[in-house]
């Protein structure tokens, strides 16, 4: 594992220890959104005229630094929804991605579009926490979890009514796919050296069974990338930086969707 990913995972374990000392799972079950009926990302991505865009709210990243640190969560996610994004992704990591404590809750409060909790989940406690936050969909990253952990965390997510996006980067991680997974994302960004390569993802996409929705993630910067990925079997496109670095991310999302429709 590369240092940054290793550091993020270590930080997650520390965070987890603190959170578990503050809130038990029984406490999480009492929280406002725990009973929320989830919106289906799978349904949103397969409906007629779906844009296929998973538009991400991202203030900063460990590789790029500040992208749009002062962005207003409500304005951006509402404008993504109005632009017809199929799913909206909100990063919830504070230390490396600059998320504010209130970002996810503020997004949940104003959206009826399926909402992805984007973080580095390393323990089932965080699956309960995601449900309590109002997530419809969680991300599990194969490179930081064992096959067994992916099975138990994805099964738990499904029991709680959420869907699961499994992120893989290379062939060796295909064995993390299991029947509780709904979407399989191929990260174009190599999390070891942070290089981005769309061709690599296309090769891997052919090896993902067709019953899973295939999501291309990271480094997507415009309609040509999307056409290329679409022509090579991807149905969904997770885009953060390209949208967030624009003055008006919602307008950029609308323009992009018009161009690919
Ligand atoms: O974005 C990063 O630099 C990054 C670094 C280390 C681990 C994960 C990272 N990104 C998380 C993501 O999943 C991206 O935010 C997402 O795929 C969107 O990518 P992009 O369109 O390139 O912002």
Protein architecture, described:
By secondary structure, this protein is an alpha/beta fold. The protein has one domain (3-260): Aldolase class I (TIM Barrel, Alpha-Beta Barrel), CATH 3.20.20.70. 40% of the residues lie in helices and 16% in strands. It contains 11 helices and 10 strands. It has helices spanning 3-22, 25-30, 41-46, 73-82, 103-110, 124-133, 147-159, 198-205, 223-230, 241-244, 249-260; strands spanning 53-57, 60-61, 65-66, 87-91, 115-118, 137-141, 163-168, 183-187, 213-217, 236-239. The strands form 2 sheets. Strands 1-4-5-6-7-8-9-10 form an 8-stranded parallel barrel, surrounded by 5 helices. A two-stranded antiparallel sheet has the order 2-3. The longest helix is centred in the first third of the chain and has 20 residues, at 3-22. The chain starts with a helix and ends with a helix. The mean pLDDT is 96. It binds ligand LARABZUK. Residues 4, 56, 58, 61-64, 191, 217-220, 238-242 line the site of ligand LARABZUK. The ligand O=C(O)c1ccccc1NCC(=O)[C@H](O)[C@H](O)COP(=O)(O)O binds next to strand 10 and helix 10.
């Amino acid at each position: 594992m590369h240092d940054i990913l290793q550091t993020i995972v270590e930080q997650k374990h520390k965070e987890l220890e603190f959170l578990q000392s503050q809130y038990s799972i029984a406490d999480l079950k009492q929280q406002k959104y725990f009973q929320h009926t989830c919106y289906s990302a799978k349904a949103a991505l397969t409906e007629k005229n779906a844009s296929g865009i998973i538009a991400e709210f991202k203030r900063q990243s460990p590789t790029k630094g500040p992208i749009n640190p002062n962005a207003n969560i409500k304005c951006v996610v509402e404008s993504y929804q109005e632009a017809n994004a199929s799913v909206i992704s909100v990063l919830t990591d504070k230390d490396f991605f600059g998320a504010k404590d209130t970002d996810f809750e503020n997004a949940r409060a104003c959206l009826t579009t399926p909402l992805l909790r984007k973080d580095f989940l390393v323990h089932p406690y965080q699956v309960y926490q995601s449900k309590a936050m109002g997530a419809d969909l969680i991300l599990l990253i194969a490179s930081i979890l064992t096959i067994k952990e992916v099975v138990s965390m994805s099964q738990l997510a499904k029991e709680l009514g959420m869907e699961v996006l499994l992120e893989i980067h290379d062939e060796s991680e295909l064995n993390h796919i299991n029947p509780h997974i709904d979407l399989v994302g191929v990260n174009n960004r190599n999390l070891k050296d942070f290089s981005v390569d769309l061709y690599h993802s296309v090769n891997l996409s052919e090896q993902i069974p067709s019953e899973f929705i295939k999501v291309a993630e990271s480094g997507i910067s415009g309609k040509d990338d999307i056409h290329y990925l679409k022509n090579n079997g991807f149905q969904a496109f997770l885009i953060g930086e390209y949208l967030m670095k624009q003055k008006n991310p919602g307008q950029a999302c609308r323009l992009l969707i018009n161009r690919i429709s």
